[in-house]
Each structure stands twice: as C-alpha cells, then as structure tokens.
Specification:
Helix content is 33%, strand content 23%. It contains nine helices and 13 strands. The strands form three sheets. A six-stranded mixed beta sheet has the order 1-2-3-4-5-6, with helices on one face. A five-stranded mixed beta sheet has the order 7-8-9-10-13, with no helix packed on it. It starts with a strand and ends with a helix. With 265 residues, the protein is α/β, with parallel strands linked by helices. The relative contact order is 0.12.
C-alpha cells in the first residue's frame, strides 16, 4: 500500500515536496525534494529509506535538493528522458508509459505532460487508489505557466487529451500551494461559480498548507477554470476582454486566452 507524505516547504515559492512510500518495505521515493533537510528528516523520523528521487521537471525549485538527498541516501535519480541537458546526473530517463516501482507494493505510471516545460513528467498511481503527482502542470484550481521553456498549446493538449480523461476520484498532488489565489482567478473569470466561492470562503479561515486540502479531478472540473472551457460565463467574460473572440470559440482558444490572462493577473 502507498503512503503519501506531502511536505510543505514554507518557502516564498510555496513548494510542496513529496515522499511516496511503500508501507511493506519502508522504501520511499522523494519527488522534487527541494527542502532536502525536511525530506531527509521526515524519512529518518518515520524509518523510511529513500531509494529514488524523481524530478517532475528541470526548474531549480524542483531539482535544487537532489544533491544533498542523493549524497545522503545513494538514491537513483529519475526524470524525463529528454531532460538530460538540464538535469545533471539522471540515472533513469522516463518516457510515457514507463512504470516506476517503489518497494514491493507501489507502482506509478509516467505520463509525458508537456506545457509548463517540454520535458515534464506527471505520475499516476497504478497499484493504489487513483492519484496524480502533477508537478507544475496541474495545480489545485489552476494550471502551470509556460514561461520557463514551455508552450501553452502543448499545455492545452495535456489537459484535454490526458488529465481530463483520468478517473474522477483521482487525488491531485501538485508542486505548489496556489489554491486560494487560483480560486480568486476562477471567480474573476466565472463569478457565478458557487463551488469555487464556497471553497474560497471556507479557506479564508481554515487554509493551512501544513495540512492542505487534497482535491480530486472531479472537484477540479468544478473549480478550475482551465477545465471549464465551454462554460457560458467563462466565454462571456472572455469576450469582454477580447471583443474579437468568435461567437463560438473552440476550447483551445478559450484555454489559450485564459492562460494569457492568468499570466498578468
């Protein structure tokens, strides 16, 4: 059985790190362990043995802890097969469909999810209840930016062709805590979204990244504007900003316009 330890770094970039653990063996994989000290300390306290480090992508706030964790544990480094020029010391390059095993009980499938960068991996569980470790592709109520080597059209295809097709009860474990800000963007684009409003009002009093809400894909499709590409309110509000928008814009057009707005919002 898989154990997920979601580690809040408390840094300015609001990173989450993860330990994915096989409860049968105590073997663990550290995902984007920027706060290497917290990850190593947590593993030591729990009696877990970090055997693998996985980077979802090449940005420094996800790879910056690789060296100390690997030096301490001799873990193998996994990343996208095409990330070699940008992540040093990769032991295993992952392609879509590759299976990553942790201990004897945990299996995860690598998904090739370009958009935030062109060498981005998400992981989905195969051996346990559905979960997605989404890095900077999918955030709670939001989507990754494309400033650092990515492309919004690729991100759109990742959302529509891969993420939207996952099981509704898939738990979402993102690379950062941007939930409240993303909900505010959803409400800016869709003021009549009662689910997003109710969640934001609740979080104004209860939000604690040390004990974060874990959403599901089903919830994301209600509160995340980047999944709500045919919603009439979203389209009407877009037309107020982009008056040349066609009468019935394609989902791709809506996604790209939303991403453009989010860049400067």
């Amino acid at each position: 059985m898989m154990v997920v330890d979601q580690i809040w770094t408390g840094n300015a970039l609001r990173n989450f790190n993860y330990l994915i653990v096989c409860d049968e063996t105590g073997d663990a994989m550290a995902v984007d362990p920027l706060d290497h000290q917290k990850c190593l300390t947590r593993a030591s306290e729990k009696g877990w043995n970090i055997t693998k480090v996985l980077n979802t992508h090449e940005h420094g706030d996800h790879t910056g802890g690789n060296g100390p964790v690997i030096a301490e544990t001799n873990a193998k480094l996994l990343a996208h097969a095409n990330a070699g020029p940008r992540i040093s010391g990769i032991d295993v390059g992952l392609k879509a469909g590759d299976v990553v095993k942790v201990g004897t009980s945990v299996e995860l499938e690598a998904m090739d999810t370009p958009g935030h960068t062109m060498s981005h991996i998400c992981l989905r569980t195969l051996s346990d209840s559905p979960a997605l470790f989404s890095g900077d592709t999918l955030f709670n109520a939001g989507a990754g930016n494309c400033h650092g080597g990515g492309h919004p059209e690729e991100l759109y295809h990742t959302f529509v062709a891969q993420l939207a097709k996952l099981a509704p009860d898939t738990k979402i474990y993102p690379g950062h805590d941007y939930l409240t800000n993303n909900l505010e963007f959803t409400l800016d684009r869709e003021p009549d979204n009662e689910q997003a409003r109710t969640m934001l009002e609740k979080l104004e009093h209860t939000h604690d990244p040390e004990d974060p809400i874990v959403t599901t894909l089903e919830v994301e499709k209600e509160i995340n504007t980047f999944f709500r590409l045919q919603n009439p309110t979203v389209i009407r509000r877009l037309r107020e900003v982009f008056p040349d928008l066609e009468d019935e814009p394609s989902p791709k057009t809506v996604f790209l316009k939303l991403r453009e707005l989010r860049n400067s919002w």
